[in-house]
Design brief:
Length: 245
């Protein structure tokens, strides 16, 4: 790290001074070590190939009479299939939302109102909003790239779009006192682990900075969303109770 500081024209004594590592160096080492542990032991095993995602989708779809949208991917020919991760997210929301509405594909910007007038509109459309994109409890982005062969700028942009959303939500929370749950769901073992591991690091950083409430990878959508959606339902009930008082 001291050598890296010198290469960048920075003060290496901020890292190593009087023959000893500084507190900054110790903090950085601890952070990098934990990031590596989480990515290698908790993220990589959850990421799926297209074949694994298809199997999980088909198994999950057969368990329940789903009415939610099951969208198709944007591929052509042999790669044309259901958008596996998006479908899994939709199915998990439908199963555990206890009949409450959900907008599985908002065609409008996320907007908040207060006292009968508009308060704030976020900059981007998101992939899902509960219960709607108007005064939502939760919003989410889905990044599934099962058939990509290289890690292009479009994939990288997806990470930074979520970062932008997180910054806007932080401003909303700090200045308006509105708590909006913000999630990212990502999958494709080859894309993220083989080609884009550096962007998994950025995701970990984004979570650590508080710009996303949770990030779910691959099969975690099925494992963790029952808990998450139940939390949304509880918040919805609390809001309705408060409004009735």
């Amino acid at each position: 790290m001291a050598a890296a500081f010198e290469k960048l024209g920075l003060d290496s004594e901020r890292i190593f001074k009087d023959g000893k590592p500084t507190q900054l160096a110790t903090d950085l080492l601890d952070y990098f070590t934990e990031r590596s542990r989480v990515l290698e032991n908790e993220v990589e095993p959850k990421l799926l190939s297209a074949e694994q995602a298809k199997d999980l989708f088909e198994k999950t779809h057969a368990e329940f009479d789903h009415k939610c949208p099951i969208p198709m991917n944007k591929q052509k020919g042999e790669k044309r299939a259901e958008a596996f991760l998006t479908a899994l997210v939709n199915m998990m929301v439908e199963r555990h939302a206890e009949g409450l509405p959900c907008d599985y594909d908002p065609g409008e910007l996320t907007t908040f109102t207060r006292g009968g007038e508009p308060l704030r509109t976020l900059a981007r459309r998101v992939d899902g909003a509960f219960p709607s994109p108007i005064n939502p409890i939760a919003i989410w982005e889905i990044k599934e790239y099962y058939y990509t062969t290289t890690f292009g700028s479009r994939v990288a942009d997806g990470v930074y779009e979520t970062l932008l959303d997180g910054m806007e939500i932080e401003e909303l929370r700090e200045h308006e006192g509105i708590d909006l749950k913000h999630y990212l769901m990502a999958d494709a073992h080859f894309t993220w682990w083989k080609c884009g591991k550096a962007y998994l690091c950025r995701m970990f950083d984004m979570l650590h900075m508080g710009y996303a409430d949770e990030i779910l990878f691959g099969r975690e959508v099925v494992e963790e969303m029952p808990r998450i959606v139940s939390q949304w339902v509880d918040i919805h009930r609390q809001r309705n109770h408060a409004a009735s008082l």
